[in-house]
Write a structure and sequence with these properties.
mainly alpha, LTXXQ motif family protein, globular, 142 residues
């Protein structure tokens, strides 16, 4: 019985791997263009605003993604860390979360020179909406 269960799990794993392997690669440039169009439309960016906004946003977003990757990396290999290492990782995570807040504050300060406060506030929901739309399209196979 256990042997059949192990074979079934292994077979399921192999089939899942095959399905994932067949998924087309993500075209980062196309994704970025879609994101720009989505955000531009949703917050009603004027051309003169867009010209100044996108460099600010891209710098902030790149920095935020790098910090989020660092936070994510702190959660790897948790089974093998010592108590001291765990404490160190917790402190590092809190430091990085503080850094995220400072980066967002700087972004809001810089973006407020180009956008209205309402447009800045809308950005948080728009990013989530864009990700939700991507997920929905991927799930629907479009």
């Amino acid at each position: 019985m256990k042997k059949h269960y192990a074979i079934a799990v292994l077979l399921l794993f192999v089939l899942s791997w095959e399905v994932l392997a067949q998924r087309p690669p993500i075209d980062r440039e196309k994704l970025q263009s879609a994101r720009i169009a989505f955000i531009t439309t949703r917050i009603d960016l004027k051309p003169e605003q867009a010209e100044k906004f996108w460099p600010i946003f891209n710098e902030y977003n790149d920095s935020r993604e790098a910090t989020m990757r660092q936070i994510s990396d702190l959660g790897k290999n948790m089974e093998t860390v010592s108590e001291e290492e765990a404490k160190s990782r917790i402190q590092k995570r809190l430091q990085l979360q503080g850094q995220l807040l400072k980066e967002e504050q700087a972004f809001v300060t810089d973006a407020s020179k180009v956008l209205s406060s309402k447009q800045i506030l809308m950005l948080n929901n728009i990013a989530r909406d864009f990700n939700r739309q991507l997920y929905q399209r991927g799930r629907d196979g479009k």
